[in-house]
Amino acid sequence: MRKTTGSSTGLPTRPDGACPCGGATYDACCGPLLRAERLADTPEQLMRSRYTAHALGDAEHLWRTWHPRTRPERVDLDPGTTWLGLQVLRAEDEEVEFVAAYDDQRGGGRLHERSRFARRAGRWFYVEPV
User: Fold this and answer.
1) Could you give the CA distance from residue 60 to residue 34 in angstroms, rounded to a whole number?
2) Contacts with 92 (C-beta within 8 Å, 6 or more apart), sequence order
């Protein structure tokens, strides 16, 4: 994914305006979640926004959407990793299973994960991999 600047957050976006998660345009999909204009309605929406945050380098969104019980003190992203695409395999109840392709200094690969989410005070949070 080639990075260019263009979103209203100042974060890099795709030149065609598409959301990195594979949904609609960034502004109609994950953009409002990353800008904290609205909350995710489902665990899948939150997971897609977290993938987009990884792709665009938005560590603040990742920290803000990580459950306080399990989140680290700070989130550090690897600037040498480029996220290439997301495939959601299953989204049921509080779990989302996905595959995310990436490229890095070692040649890249695929991250296959089942993630668990929890709702707290009306908000969805990422808890941990299952």
Assistant:
1) 9
2) none
**pLDDT exceeds 60 at position 20:** yes
Q: Work out the angle at residue 25's Cα, subtended by the Cα atoms of residues 55 and 11, and round it to the nearest 5 degrees.
A: 40
C-alpha 63/C-alpha 115 separation (Å) is 16
Q: Which residues pair with 8 in a beta bridge?
A: none
Euclidean distance between CA atoms 108 and 106, whole angstroms? 6
Contact 97, 113 (CB under 8 A): yes
Tokens of 60: 């603040």
* DSSP code at position 100: E
Q: pLDDT tens digits, residue range 58-76?
A: 999 999 999 999 999 999 9
pLDDT at 5 over 60: no
Averaged confidence pLDDT in the chain = 90
In whole angstroms, how large is the CA radius of gyration of the chain? 14
Q: What is the dihedral of CA 40, 84, 76, 93, to 10 degrees?
A: 30
